[in-house]
Write a structure and sequence with these properties.
Largest sheet of chain B: 4 strands, antiparallel
Distance between the termini of chain A: 97 Å
Shape of chain A: rod-shaped
Oligomer: heterotrimer
Helix content of chain B: 25-40%
Mean pLDDT of chain A: 74
Number of strands of chain A: 5
Structural class of chain B: alpha+beta
Distance between the termini of chain B: 32 Å
Mean pLDDT of chain B: 83
Strand content of chain A: 5-15%
Strand order of the largest sheet of chain A: 3-5-4
Strand content of chain B: 15-25%
Low-confidence stretches of chain A: 6-23, 262-266
Order of helices and strands of chain A: EHHHHHEHHEHHEE
Low-confidence stretches of chain B: 1-7, 215-221
Number of helices of chain A: 9
Chain lengths: ~270, ~220, ~220
């Protein structure tokens, strides 16, 4: 939604009509605008206006407005004060020691500002008179949008690939194997086994030898030794077996304690 | 350029008409019929001839004047339509089904879809094969000389590239798969892993039918 | 037609490039920068030369390739404006204050709000500047390195596009204004007449504060 510039205010200033002008302050875009309008009534060429006359006109305008008790923006009053000062500077000859701006300089400044404002207004009008996009100049009426096509780069590693293949091949094999079970000897199991193994043997036998038949797989070996050793300590504590180890890390010997019967199953 | 005689107006007038038609077509949000130009050109102009001429002038350009039913509009030249598509790629992991299919094709190639399904034990959707072909890893090789003449699939150079294989011979064999723990030791002794083959058509393969080839467009064409 | 030597590519390649540029510009309603074409042309293409050549090819036509600051766009030819004139749509007309403010910013940029007010001799409501920024014609440039660090305003590409200006140098009456010293802020026009400037930040401008940027969203973003 682009605002559309509207040129109606750029029409030439209306013919002088003091009656209307003196009651209508709302029509002006500030004191400079009012001064510009007053100046235009004076002369076409702003360079040749009488700044003194202009100041007087402005001051009398403000006076009229105030008499009519019309509310007026402070901007206008500030300008009036400045113009009153300008007027005094223009009318009183300048003293040599006076380092304040001369009346002529102030008048030139006012003229410059009026000229500049008028120039900007002319430029605004010239801008408006240019061929405007959407009014006289047109962009493509049916732009062809860019469509975004999403595509995927697939990621897969050789490992994924080989694993997928191996899994597939294995899954094709008839399911006739026994499920892999992990054998963990509980202490109770180990104790029962140990009791059965030692039996009535009264000779020293290395613990390893008893376990030999269980040592076929490495996984079982660890659990068998750990649980059996713990159980043998327990059995020794109960006085059922005797243990002997002749050197550090040497084989552990075990035998049934003499006179003891293997405990019967409860 | 078109034959001057087609347009009866004087060259200057014809050019002016062409410019106006061109501007109106350009600025319009909708295609325009010949009658839409009458208010701007006057009754005398042979608008159909002017439009035909304008279309000829634009024919070699990046934008063409095209006729749609009774109306005319500027459109991007068809061969440049790719300019209006923006590719957006995202990286995505290959689905399990696709990975399995690819692996089986890789080892068993040339393999038909039925053969892939036999190994996988489930039906393989056409979409999975399409995806692998779109990814540029699988191609149709030929047709097996068996009833039904099924298409045989094989891997591509893009496949070797992606998986950093110099050749199919680099795919690990049975022993290597076992050694790396990917295959367990409890495989039946008769299990074999085929030697993949991606050479020229084998004796039991026919070339693809002409119709097949069309479906094999690379995605980035 | 342009001098062949301007475009170093082989004729075929240059033609292909021209078609691509043409298609992209035609497809877009917004001006495109030379850099927008790079992805579709090789690095080697002299895009500026190609654009100039395309502009020359279209100069006599009903649709012209025009420059807007650093960007290019196809627009209907200026001289057809009476033919194509569309009735004012339901847009709000720009107020006198807004248009005056726009002109002052355009000719005096970079300009602070105080400077705009000085020229107009009256306070400028924040709403006026907001409206101009909403329209996409005015943007905040930076902050002047003076006490209070006032925001500096300038015009946008959208301003150039809307008013059919190639660059600020095309502002109507600019030469005359420059000659008369009316672009100066000071009474005795000094030797250097400032010209409107929409380039990068000047020495007396700081970048905007992070907070400023938020308020500067384009309306169509």
């Amino acid at each position: 939604m682009t605002p559309d510039p509207s040129p109606e205010w750029l029409e030439p200033a209306p013919p002088p009509d003091d009656e209307v002008m003196y009651v209508d302050v709302d029509g002006y875009e500030g004191p400079l605008d009012l001064l510009l309008d007053l100046a235009r009534r004076q002369k076409v060429d702003l360079a040749q206006i009488s700044v003194l006359a202009l100041a007087e006109q402005y001051l009398s305008f403000i006076e009229t407005v105030r008499e009519k008790r019309i509310e007026i923006a402070a901007d206008y009053l500030v300008m009036a004060a400045w113009l009153a000062y300008l007027k005094s500077r223009l009318m009183v000859p300048q003293a040599a020691s006076d380092d304040e701006p001369s009346g002529e300089m102030m008048a030139a400044l006012l003229q410059f500002r009026l000229k500049r404002l008028e120039a900007m207004r002319r430029s605004a009008m010239q801008l408006l008179n240019r061929p405007l996009l959407g009014r006289q100049i047109f962009a493509r009426g049916a732009p062809e949008p860019i469509t975004v096509a999403r595509s995927s780069i697939w990621e897969a590693s050789l490992f994924d690939l080989l694993k997928a293949y191996a899994t597939q091949r294995e899954s094709g094999i008839p399911n006739d194997y026994t499920p892999h079970e992990r054998h963990v000897w509980s202490l109770q199991d180990a104790r029962d086994i140990l009791n059965r193994l030692i039996g009535e043997n009264m000779d020293w036998v290395p613990l390893d030898a008893y376990l030999a038949e269980y040592l076929s797989t490495p996984e079982q070996r660890i659990t068998a030794i750990a649980s059996t050793f713990a159980s043998s300590l327990e059995l020794a504590r109960q006085g059922q077996v005797e243990l002997r180890q002749t050197l550090a890390f040497g084989p552990l010997f075990v035998r049934r304690r003499k006179g003891d019967r293997p405990p019967t199953e409860s | 350029m078109s034959d001057e005689s087609e347009v009866s107006e004087s060259p200057d007038l014809a050019d002016r008409y062409l410019r106006i038609i061109e501007a109106l077509l350009f600025a319009s949000a909708e295609p325009l019929a010949a009658s839409d130009f009458v208010p701007h050109l006057g009754e005398g102009a042979d608008i159909e001839a002017l439009l035909t001429r304008l279309a000829e002038q634009y024919a070699p350009r990046g934008v063409n004047l095209v006729r749609r039913a009774d109306k005319w509009a500027f459109r991007t030249a068809e061969d440049l339509n790719f300019l209006l598509r923006r590719e957006q790629t995202d990286n995505r992991p290959l689905s399990r089904a696709a990975l399995e299919t690819l692996a089986i094709i890789a080892y068993h190639q040339p393999a038909t879809r039925a053969e892939v399904e036999e190994v996988r034990g489930v039906a393989t959707g056409k979409g999975t094969l399409d995806l692998l072909m779109e990814a540029g890893w699988v191609r149709m090789r030929g047709r097996r000389r068996t009833p039904g003449r099924p298409v045989t699939y094989g891997t591509t150079e893009g496949f070797l590239d992606h998986f950093s294989l110099e050749s199919l011979a680099d795919l690990p064999g049975l022993e290597e798969l076992k050694g790396s723990g990917l295959l367990s030791n409890r495989l039946p002794p008769n299990m074999q892993i085929p030697l993949p083959f991606d050479g020229p058509l084998r004796e039991d393969e026919d070339p693809l039918d002409p119709d097949d080839i069309e479906g094999q467009d690379e995605p980035n064409e």
